Amino acid sequence: MPIPAVMQGRLTLPVIGAPMFIVSVPDLVIAQCKSGIVGGFPALNARPKELLEEWIIEIKVALAEFETASGGKAAPFAVNQIVHGSNDRLEHDVDVCVRQRVPIVITSLRPPAEVVRAVHGYGGIVLHDVISIRHAEKALEQGVDGLILVCAGAGGHAGMLSPFALVAEVRRFYQGTVILSGAIANGRAILAAQAMGADLAYMGTRFIATREANAREEYKRMLVENAAKDIVYTSAISGVHGNYLRQGPDELRGRPPQSPGGLEGHLGRRTGARQHCRRAERRRAGRSAARRISGGRASAGGHALPDRGRPLGGYQLPGRLAACRAARMRSKPASRAATRPKTLSGG
Ligand SMILES: Cc1cc2nc3c(=O)[nH]c(=O)nc-3n(C[C@H](O)[C@H](O)[C@H](O)COP(=O)(O)O)c2cc1C
Which of 104, 105, 273, 313 has CA atoms 20 to 30 A from the CA of 139? Predict the structure, then answer.
C-alpha cells in the first residue's frame, strides 16, 4: 500500500491534517508540516481570493526557512478545492495552485477531471474525498492519485459508513493510496486505520483545539468537553449531511468563529430542494439546526485540553509512539512478534 512519493521521507507520522473551513489557516498548516504531517487548508478560507496566493507563498517561505534552519525536511502541504457549481472561484484557485505548484490538491464533492489534468501538468497529486464506493469509482475514473474515505463520525461533511466496511470494499478493487478519516484522534486510532488497510490517517477535529487553529477559545473548549452524544448528523446546515455540535455557547450561535459567510458560505447558494430539506430537517430536529457548529466525533475522546504552550498542543508524542507500533506491526512476520521498531517515514 503506497505512501505517495511526494510524502516519502518527509513524514514523522502517517497523517494528513484535514482541511477545515475557517479553522485551517497558514499558522496551523505550517505547524503541521514542520511537525512532519501533511498540513492542508481549504482555498476558500483565503478571502478575498487574491489572498490565496499570499497564503501559499507564506507557507512555502516558512517551510523553506524551517528546512534551512533544521537541516531536515518538512512535510508537504495541501490545498483543498471544493469542486461544485456554486464555487465560482474554482478556476482562479486552481490557476493559483498550478502557478505555485502546490504539491497536493485535495478535491471534495464532484469528481475532478479538469483539476487532475491541471495538477498532473506540473507534477502535483490529487487526493479526492469520498463517502461511498460509487463516488470512489467515479473519482478513480477521473485519474485521482488517492482516495480519502470519509467515514462515520468525521467532522464536517461526513459519510455514514463504518470504516471497516468501506476500507475493505475499496481494497477489493484499489491498491493505490487510501487515506481514512472519521473520529481519528490519537495514536491508537492511527494504528487502527493502518491495521484496517489504510495508508494514512486524515484528522481534522483533533487539531481545532490547538493554539494554531483559527477558532474561538469557547469552541475549542466545547470540543474538548463534548462527548459523542453531543454531536448530531444533519443536512440542515449546508444541505449536505455533516456532523455538528448540538449546542453552542450563545456567542457562537448562528455562525462559526470569524466566518465570512457562515457555514452556508462554504457551498454558496442553496437550491430550492436543499432549502426544502433544510426546513424539513429543522422541523424534525425541533430546534434551530443553524445553531450548530462543526465537529466530528473525534471531539468525543474525553481528552484534556491540549498543551497550549506547545506546537499542535503537544500532540506529536502519543501519535509517534502509535505509529512506531504500526510500523513494527507491518514488519512483523506472521508467526512471531518483532521487537525491533522500524523508521516512521515513508510508512
Ligand atoms: C470545522 C470543520 C470544517 C471542515 N471544512 C472542510 C472543508 O472546507 N473542506 C473539506 O474538504 N472538508 C472539510 N472538513 C472535513 C475534514 O476535512 C475531514 O474530512 C474531517 O475533519 C475528518 O474527520 P475528523 O474531524 O473526525 O478528524 C471540515 C471538518 C471540520 C471539523
Answer: 273
